[in-house]
Amino acid sequence: MLAYIIRRILQSVLVMLVVALVSFALFRFVGDPINSMVGQEATIADREALREQLGLNDPFLTQFATFIGRAAQGDFGISYRLQQPVMELILSRLPATLELALVSGVLAFVFGVGFGVYTALKRNGWLSNTIMTVSLIGVSLPTFLIGVLLIWVFAVELQWLPSFGRGDTVQIGGWTTGFLTATGRASIILPAITLGLYQMTLIMRLVRAEMLEVLRTDYIKFARARGLSNRAVHFGHALKNTMVPVITITGLQLGSIIAFSIITETVFQWPGVGALFINSVRFVDVPVMAAYLMLIALVFVVINLIVDLLYYVVDPRLRVDRAASRH
Amino acid sequence: MTDALLSVRNLRVEFPTRRGILTAIDDVSFDIMPGEVLGVVGESGAGKSLTGAAIIGLLEPPGRIAAGEILLKGQRIDNLDAEAMRRIRGKRIGMVFQDPLTSLNPLYTVAQQLIETIRTHADISEAEARSRAVALLDRVGIPAAARRIDDYPHHFSGGMRQRVVIALALCAEPELVIADEPTTALDVSVQSQIIDLIKEICAERGAAVMLITHDMGVIAETADRVAVLYAGRLAEIGPVREVITAAEHPYTAGLMGSIPTLTQDNARLVQIPGAMPRLNAIPQGCAFNPRCDRAFDRCFKDRPDPLDRGNGRKVACWLFDEVGAAAKEKANV
Question: Distance between CA atoms of B88 and A241, rounded to whole angstroms?
Fold first, then answer.
């Protein structure tokens, strides 16, 4: 088990290095950051001096090595645009994104599993058919359109919920949270639904398909033949067996939620890292973009690791197979 | 026959399909006495497993009981509501399935599955259920039962898992155990152990057994009586010795002829020509008529009902009908 974790962590480090290389190389082609940093009147000499100072004249590999060396210590340099340390910028924005991702992830999981189980058990009920049809909309509509539609209905027409921003926040240590204020809680509802809807329909369809599969198995038939109640058969025996693939997908989707919150954050002007990234792209703020990509890669790698470890909790067969292969 | 434990009366199971209704079991009747072992044999698709599923109320939709009744100690169980039927499953009728590798939920320990089942049917404490479970595992021949009970199914071999399955089927002390090909998926070397175990443990508890198999050898060793199914119909039923030594229905005779014996070492095994008809193409008259070498004109016209041949034997064949016999003699002349 420990050897497995160490092996996985080493693999993860390798993945991170590759991501760093790719993102670093990519950003050399997005444009010259100097142009957006200095004014029209700057002389060629000024530009050269700045270029030298930022290390942009060094060979590619030297720049990359410097970048990796600093990144390993949590130092991603100074934002070209805002002239603040990148880590500080990202950390100040991260709570907003993580809270949004958490709420939409929980919404997607709870409703996804709930609806999935319901539609699998009542396969031909009218409510099941309705849910399945509506879920098609969730899969096929683009996120920004859903966001705009929600704003139109709930913020403009009904005026129940705010249309943008995060509401009031409370500072706890280095973390700003919107959960503790009424406006904060109201503000998170629409963006969370927008961000989580697609994941919810995905999870729901997956749970439904897996559940139907499991309900056909022999051990479910045998569980019924032993006279166990429907409740025990459905939720004790069937649901647990559907959870392994569902955990994988949900975990990976959580990564996507954080990564793709860019669109939702833009639509709702949510002050998270996604919005920060979009602005950085516009200004060719390479340190911020690189740090953001590294952060997203880290999130995916960590979630993957956690998902793999969760398998062990859910499925006892893996514990043994792994132990056996080690001997 | 009123004191039968289980009575199946004119059972008919249908599958409505887009192209019409398929009758998978057609007018099958038999009884199982308390403590008796009834063997049910037939080819794949003859309706053996479906009969078992119909009795325990687990026909897969759209399959349904279209006619007939099933009585457990004189009480009808084919028309009970889902909850009442659930209480009968496991508690009064236990079931053992074919494949022990897939019958157990891989995510729960044997203890969890046994205790859950025991406590579903008896209002006892967890500790008491556990000690019962250990005793039962010990009885079905799991070594070091008290320790192994906390293992997961994948820790056990196929034969051991089938022992666990048997323990699960018996843990609420049912009066009838339906064993649906309990040894088909097992090694030949453990097959007889499992069959012996089912027989012994059911005899001990006075439980009757309905043993579904296509292995005549198993039937010969184990069953008290045997029912032969063909294309969803009952071909012959009777005490196992008589049916084996003096099969009357030509199909049963063919089945017996296809079993290798040690005494006639160089004789070719008898082969029944052709294959069992598909459910949507059962011929008029006797379902066996295309393959029967003794069929005569009546067999192609009318369907034979099981005829009483005395001593609890019944044969669905016109050869044993007075009129049929006469007609046959005429045909032979």
Answer: 26
